[in-house]
Design goal:
Length: 245
Amino acid sequence: MNQDSEQDRVYSEQRDRVGDFVFDQQVARVFPDMIRRSVPGYATVINLSGVLARQHVQSNSNCYDLGCSLGATSLALQSGIEANGCKIIAVDNSPAMLEQARTRVPDLPNRTPIDWVCDDIRTTPIENASLITLNFTLQFIPVEARKALLTRIQRGLRPGGILVLSEKIAFEDPQEEHLQIEMHHAFKRANGYNDLEISQKRSALENVLIPETLAQHQARLKQAGFVRADIWFQCFNFISLVARK
């Protein structure tokens, strides 16, 4: 995947009013730079999704990359899948992101094919799946709609199938919450963002990205029918879980 992109300068100029964050063409153009500099451990989670695919994808099954953005996870899954007769279904509701994804992800012969689908993941049919990824996607779904989505995912998984759920999380302890937020902001500053950019992006995401605690995620996954959900990665206030059917 061609990771070249413009430098993220979306929130570099003072705004009188900061609107809600949207995955539009402006964001799509800078997204690889934006997420690399904003999400600690992002590259690790994406790359190791391919390792999980090698271990867990079953022959003649579907893999779903829900909220695929520019297709980084889809490409990692494709590189990891060794089972025969599989298909990757990459779903996003942003036409701008999918347009970039189709351009950036090469059509490789003799590799698991990727179908790009512009759709709302809350209504996308999920069936015959052995692996599903929700990498930093559920946090953008309204809280009241999350259980229904996870239940549909669980029902669409084959026996032995897994869900990879990666999220920014909140913490019940106010001091821990403060520490993790400060460390995340320090990470952004170390990657070249200034305080204005950090502040304005945080305002843009305030009503769009709603984080929950680890306990809330695990309880909902159990309610949705998953047998267990284990942390396999964490860096500051970003985690990834493997939930098993």
